[in-house]
């Protein structure tokens, strides 16, 4: 699967920088993309299991991708959906060999690949990097990503608002949602509440990344601060 994704990206985006190539490959083979493709192909209907909690989780995931514009990293699909896709490709590879396995992988990835090709032809900016990785690349260790449960968050921070869905609301000490928050010097910059820990964390990072990219002056100041902090740490290590 990774071989097919890398080969397709190399041919379709020959001028792509290495960092973007790695990010795109990671996205194409991520659980989020494979789970989406699993549902689009209807493969989830053939899952043989004895987990009573799984059907409602799959139904909830399908409802989210159908009704909400969550973005690539805004969902937390059951891992078994991605496993189904990988198992099908693996079975075809074992039965028909490398060429058949690669053909199957490319066929399954086709809807996503076609969308990326269309965006490229339209001149649209394509960024599939994970928001946490992107935030770390922009500011290093200046910002800290953490997660906890909302009842604990309410008693351990001075933050008064969290983003849930598309709306801000007061922090609720009686809510059991997960909260992903980005802090700087023990002060919370943004906090996102969601039933899923990974979605809360990803959305919090995504908000910070969007803010930095929309404010070059702020990003330049943080970049300068990052360089000074890292230089001081390096100097301290030498001493």
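^ Assign residues to that structure.
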């Amino acid at each position: 699967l990774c071989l097919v994704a890398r080969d397709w990206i190399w041919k379709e985006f020959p001028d792509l920088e290495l960092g973007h190539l790695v990010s795109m490959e990671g996205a194409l083979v991520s659980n989020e993309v494979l789970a989406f493709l699993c549902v689009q192909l209807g493969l989830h209907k053939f899952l043989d299991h004895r987990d009573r909690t799984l059907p409602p989780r799959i139904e909830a995931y399908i409802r989210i991708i159908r009704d909400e514009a969550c973005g690539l990293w805004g969902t937390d699909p059951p891992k078994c959906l991605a496993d189904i896709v990988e198992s099908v490709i693996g079975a075809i590879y074992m039965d028909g060999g490398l060429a058949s396995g690669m053909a199957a992988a490319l066929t399954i990835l086709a809807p996503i690949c076609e969308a990326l090709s269309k965006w490229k032809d339209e001149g649209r900016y394509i960024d599939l990097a994970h928001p946490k990785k992107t935030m770390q690349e922009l500011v290093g260790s200046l910002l800290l990503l953490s997660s906890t449960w909302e009842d604990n968050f309410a008693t351990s921070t001075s933050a008064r608002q969290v983003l849930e869905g598309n709306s801000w609301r007061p922090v609720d000490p009686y809510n059991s949602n997960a909260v992903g928050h980005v802090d700087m010097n023990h002060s919370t910059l943004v906090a996102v509440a969601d039933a899923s820990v990974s979605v809360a964390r990803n959305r919090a990072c995504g908000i910070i990344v969007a803010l930095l990219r929309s404010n070059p002056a702020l990003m330049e100041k943080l970049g300068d601060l990052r360089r000074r902090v890292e230089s001081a740490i390096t100097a301290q290590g030498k001493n």
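The longest helix spans residues 98-121.
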